[in-house]
């Protein structure tokens, strides 16, 4: 695998991840679970979503791709091809197609579990660097992604949700967070 490329992705992830972790220490339980409106997620739901999604990708999808060389001839969708060429999600508010996160999220549990995402990213970067091939797993919108693309997806996903984080925080006029 291409070590410099993996390291660049990981460094970008680290910048985004640091913002998420640092901010996590400043929220009250009430702020963490505040929903700006009935169609919007709370910060807790966004953190939960990032944790659960990253856990699945980093502990299931990437290892599966590295050990089960399936779907090798499958491709990304047009949307997936576009996003990976762009290297990020466009600045749009997307509709989530999965099961929504729970409406109340325990901030202490997230504070304890969230840092493990960084550990998983480091582990997968080492594994990807020593890997020769990769099968692919299907993403409902992006099509079939390789282990490397799933790794990059985690970074893109954290960056994408920073805009949502900022929108929610703006509902708290006394809060002064930078993202």
Overview of the molecule:
- The chain has a two-stranded antiparallel ribbon with strand order 1-2.
- The chain is mainly alpha-helical and 179 residues long.
- The protein is built from seven helices and two strands.
- 58% of the residues lie in helices and 4% in strands.
- The mean pLDDT is 90.
- Helix 1 (3-24) packs antiparallel against helix 6, helix 1 (3-24) runs parallel beside helix 7 (147-169) and helix 3 (43-67) packs antiparallel against helix 7.
- It is globular and about 45 Å long.
Strand order, largest beta sheet: 1-2
The radius of gyration over CA amounts to 17 Å
- Cα(first) to Cα(last) distance is 31 Å
Largest sheet: 2 strands, antiparallel
Describe the global form: globular
What are the low-pLDDT stretches, counting only 5+ consecutive residues below 50? none
What is the residue-mean pLDDT, rounded to a whole number? 90
Please render the helix and strand layout as text.
Blueprint: H1 3-24, H2 29-32, H3 43-67, H4 78-86, H5 107-113, H6 116-129, E1 136-139, E2 143-146, H7 147-169
Antiparallel strand pairs: 1-2
């Amino acid at each position: 695998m291409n070590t410099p490329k993996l390291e660049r992705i990981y460094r970008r992830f680290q910048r985004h991840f640091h913002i998420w972790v640092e901010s996590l220490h400043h929220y009250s339980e009430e702020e963490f679970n505040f929903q700006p409106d009935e169609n919007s997620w709370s910060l807790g739901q966004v953190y939960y979503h990032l944790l659960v999604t990253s856990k699945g990708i980093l502990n299931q999808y990437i290892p599966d791709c590295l050990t089960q060389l399936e779907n090798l001839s499958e491709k990304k969708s047009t949307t997936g091809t576009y996003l990976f060429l762009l290297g990020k999600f466009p600045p749009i508010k997307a509709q989530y197609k999965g099961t929504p996160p729970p409406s109340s999220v325990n901030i202490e549990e997230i504070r304890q579990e969230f840092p493990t995402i960084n550990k998983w990213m480091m582990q997968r970067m080492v594994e990807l660097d020593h890997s020769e091939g990769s099968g692919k797993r299907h993403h409902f919108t992006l099509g079939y992604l390789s282990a490397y693309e799933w790794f990059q997806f985690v970074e893109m996903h954290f960056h994408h949700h920073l805009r949502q984080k900022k929108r929610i925080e703006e509902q708290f006029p006394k809060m002064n967070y930078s993202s």
